[in-house]
Amino acid sequence: MKAVIMAGGFGTRMQPLTCNIPKPMVPLVNRPIMLHIVELLKKYGITDLVMLLYHQPFVIKNFFRDGAEFGVRITYVTPLEDMGTAGAVKYAEKYLDERFVIISGDLLTDFNIQKVLDFHLSSKALATITLTSVKDPLQFGVVVTDKEKRITQFLEKPGWGEVISDTINTGLYVLEPEIFKYIPEGENFDFSQDLFPLLLKKKLPLFGFPIKGYWRDIGNTDSYREAHHDILKGKVTVKIDEAKREVPGKDLRLGLDVRLGEATTTEGTVVIGDNTQVLGGAEIRDAVIGRNCTIEPGAKLSRCVIWDNVYVKKGARINDSVICNNVSVGPGVVTEEGVVVADDTAIGEESLLKRDVKVWPRKVIEAGSTVTGNLIWGERWKKSLFEGEMIKGLTNIELTPEFVAKLGCAYGSSLPKGSHVLIGRDATLSSRMLKRSFLGGCLSAGVNVRDLRMISLPLLRYKLRTFGEVGGVHFRQAMDDPASTEIVFLDADGLDFSSSMGKNVERIFYKENFRRAHHTEPGGITELPQVVDFYREGFFRGLDQALLRKSATKVVIDFNHSGAGQILPQILNDMGCEVIALNTYLDEQRGAKSADEKPHSLQQLSKIVVSLEARAGFWLDPTAEEVVLIDETGKIYQPAELLRLMVALMLKAGARGAFAIPVSAPSVIEQMASDHGCSVRRTKSAERSMIEAAISPEVVMAGSMGGRFAFPKFQAAFDGLFTIAKTLELCAAAGVPLSRVMKEVPFRTFLEGKVSCIWEMKGGIMRKMSEDSVEKEATFIDGIKVSFGDDWVLVLPDQYLPLVHVVAEAKEPRTAQRLLEEYMQKVERWKKELQQ
């Protein structure tokens, strides 16, 4: 039996631990992570190993050599380029002429591999994937099997709305050599994304074997620390080179020539490497210390990991932190939980490193410093920069000019040199400040910027539909927190950034792998003053101007101090509308109104609409993408009502085609569309999913559950300005007041609820929901939606908040209320079961 150890990863998420060594060689209890994998394979008689290398291969080769020292035989294979996981294994095909095991070189596990092999043989599988349950399945591939353990579905790194189980792919596979027939030669090919879905599609014997035991993907610094905690607590057994010292009531492991001074106290499990000296009076609890270290008197080390050649001076307190090689920790230094200090760093005396600070290699921290954020970026370390399509943070605290300049450089480095991007902003001074910093970063990477200055986001999206730019970025004040700035990233088609695009920028940012243009080749800045005129022309073409002029509509619009107030009133006036515009002036210091002011603004707007006898009133979100409608009676439409009304208006105007709506939208829309010979396309709740559906030529409108609409005839993106004009046109075509149109819309009770749920439980909740829905009619477009005839309930984890949404719709109000309460109670019960 042979085994392939995947050891080619860059270890980006583990930086700064992996700045100088590849991830499989990061020490785990003073031994490389991959050595623990080798020991596990040896335990089950697997000693013929193929190591697949790519990043810094010489470090791994210099340590393992031919494998004889470790009781194994090693063959090294190093592809010339990144071929993907399956593509890299294809590169080693000539060494794999019999059944073989695949395992990652950065796992910590004690799985019984023999049980996996026995199952593989008994099921006559072509491929067997080892499965296990985890609390947070988002970072892994979720796998669904039937009763015979045959795989029926894959979800590779899903969003919370897609999670239907917490059973994940562990990266441990058993494969037959016939598998190579399905891996193309010389192509980038991945196991999870390409090979396994192909086997599933061809209905080949692909099985998943759930196994109990310890498993951890050591993918980031938090997981690395927790792996040590688990080893020291005895949750998983690994080989430790240091010998156990027989001391009553203590678990003390000491290497060769270790010197423990008098009055040194140890508590819990303590591992100390060769030639390390701990001077009298030091206190150590549940810690791993490497080789050739010195710990001075009075130092307190708790739940920490110390690598080799580290000097900890008197009075220092290291708490749940990682200190890498060749670091000097000065007297009285304090590190809080989650701190990582990389190689060759000197920390001055009496310095304080706050929680989760990451310090990259070869840094000097002056004495008495209080380091509250990451030393390189000037802000606190985050696991992920992107929240969907945007990066959000406190202005000048988290999103500082220096941070944003590097972000611009990372973004520019992800684009072709010499390409062009659009950059715009809202009216606030803070957005202007950060945009200018970002712009400089783009220029330094050799990317040209077309500066749109202050502009509404829909106009920027509209310009991206034309040839010339490869992307766009918009800076705006966050409505839910005026102290924060949101940076929205768009692709070449004006769509929100996909997750893969965001991860690419993030990877460059974290590695600081910036492209620096030659001093003669930085990007240039140009302006496009004609963008508004270009937008107006398209705007006019997308509407029936004659109908609007004939109707002479009076409308009241609250512009929320956004830039749209400088554009839309004139456009509507040119089409014969009488516009009463509110809050059109720009306030650079204050910005737009906050979310807390929205209810009051809507009530005021409602009164004005009624008193002026206007046909309608609109509240326009500062992003100029979301609208709230008030009809002529002063009724304020909730998002679900507005979506039904807009579909009804489109159908009344004779629209023919499909409507793209999220899975959580009311089902009466299908009924209305069907009665008029139209169709409905359900999408995920993510706005990008709706817009991607809107690109189809059959789609006449896409509508969200948040008051955002797209009309592909004009542009397949949410546009509040055009939504207002289109609503007025549709209202004129209907020839009756909006309130009467709404009365004709079929009514069904539509209810929404929220249940608080910590991130670690979301996967378990969706597994419970999936199990509960086995015998029911269920769909899995986004979350899990269960139908009971014409009634239904949806359980959907929130993508960014610790919440689970429950949505119910029924013909009878009592039925809808019962469904909502029943499933909210189920979620609460499942939470308690998972806690136990």
TrEMBL record:
Protein localization: Cytoplasm, Cytosol
Pfam family, one: NTP_transferase
Residues in Alpha-D-phosphohexomutase alpha/beta/alpha domain copies: 386-515, 535-634, 651-745
GO terms of biological process kind: carbohydrate metabolic process
CDD domains, alphabetized: LbH_G1P_AT_C_like, MPG1_transferase, NTP_transferase
Entry annotated with the keyword Protease: no
Record keywords: Cytoplasm, Initiation factor, Phosphoprotein, Protein biosynthesis
Domain EIF2B subunit epsilon/gamma LbH as annotated: residue spans: 257-350
Signal sequence residues: none
Keyword Protein biosynthesis: yes
Domain Nucleotidyl transferase intervals: 2-233
GO molecular function term, any single one: intramolecular phosphotransferase activity
InterPro entries (UniProt xref): A-D-PHexomutase_a/b/a-I, A-D-PHexomutase_a/b/a-I/II/III, A-D-PHexomutase_a/b/a-II, A-D-PHexomutase_a/b/a-III, A-D-PHexomutase_C_sf, LbH_EIF2B3/5, Mannose-1P_guanyltransferase, NTP_transferase_dom
Annotated family: Belongs to the phosphohexose mutase family.
Protein name: Mannose-1-phosphate guanyltransferase
Protein species of origin: Geomesophilobacter sediminis
